[in-house]
Amino acid sequence: MTTKIGENKVVTRFAPSPTGYMHMGSVRTALFAYLFARNHNGKFILRIEDTDKERSKKEFDQAILDTMKWLGLDYDEIYRQSERGTIYRKYIEKLISEGKAFVSKEEVTEEGQRSEVIRFKNPNKKISFKDLIKGDVTFDTTELGDFVIAKSLDEPVFHLAVVVDDFEMGITHVIRGEDHVSNTPRHILIFEALGAPVPTFAHLPLVLAPDRTKLSKRKHGEIVSLEYYRKLGYLSVSIINFMALIGWNPGNDKEVFSISELIKIFDLEKVQKGGAIFNTEKLNWFNKHYIQLLSQEEKFLHLKELGDIPFLNEIGEKINLLNLMTERISNFSELAFSLKSGEYDFLFKKPEYSMDLIFWKGEVDVLKTKERLINVKTILEAVDSNSFNKEVIKESLWPFAEKEGRGSVLWPVRVALSGKEKSPDPFTLSEILGKDETLVRLVYAINLLS
After folding, report:
1. Catalytic position from the list 217, 254, 273, 403
2. Active-site residue flag, 403
3. Within-domain flag for 274
4. CATH number at residue 256
5. Which domain holds residue 257?
6. The whole model's pTM is what?
7. 3 CB neighbour count, 10 Å cutoff
8. Which string of b and e fits 305-344 if b means at least 16 CB within 10 Å?
């Protein structure tokens, strides 16, 4: 059963405040509002709520725009509340003139100084609304009292500004976190006072940490911020896929979705009512999956974005090298760390190692090991340089390795090429190093055994 939409075109909005980098919970809110609008061929609006002049920063405003572009969540219109002051003033004056709001003197200091604020005249009644996720919700608004809607004619507070904007922008569906449920009665009262249609509400369950507490920067640190994952080299497609499945499912076991597939199947009625767990292991699984789908060139560009990487030019020149390096990583920062720590230095400069490392499991037979390496060198010399790839190399060496013992042949070759106990297999290493460098390193190992 899908969510029923009336004849009016669906219009949703994402309304972040530019007071910090985007929280992962906000990413999901933006995604769900976007998917819902696009699923119904509707309009998706970005509204930056920057009326808090002290906390709002230009850098975070720009970060919101960059983030939306990076995620691929294209919006049809953009607004900033700081540019809409005259509109809010018009509605504040209207409410006052109709007796639905009034100027109130407030004591603000111990010295008894007073200031004026504008309060909404609460009709003190019960409010009921149908939430697309939570179901029927009822509030007795009496306990709210006459609440503040503006600090002055030119300083609306959140409750007034958000209602005016939703009315003016024709918002049909307000999709936001369930921490806003308690604000909804105030908003409905203001909608009614303005004679405006009340939009349909859908309050998303909170995004929870694995310990089932609310995912918060204070408690959980950087992992709550999208910027953290961007700096680590996660892919936007992985973030989108992962966040879509936090608290929502398509009704089957399928997990990997493109954004276009999500648009086609997204339905708010499949959003769960309880809190949803933010599982970084699952995010890593998605990111690893999508990394493997990238081309060598795309992988290079993602690695390049992480800054000063050793041997970056050499990496770009070696065919299929990044495919090898990215086989096991969950994000590109892991590869950057490996490169900076010297784990892959042997691919770009001749390795140094002791003769003892060459011997396979205690087979300390210098002459036999040397003879085997000479045979390997002879076999590889016969391989055409134009077909010097791991498949051909393996096919050429395998009969000899089977005859002499795989470990007895392949271990010395791998050490000769990498100088390490742990490295990729010798066939892959040979392809990456190329025929000339492979033979040079085999000669070095043979001479070491002389």
Report:
1. 217
2. no
3. yes
4. 1.10.1160.10
5. 217-291
6. 0.89
7. 17
8. ebeebebeeebeebeebbebbbeebbbbbbbbeebeeeeb
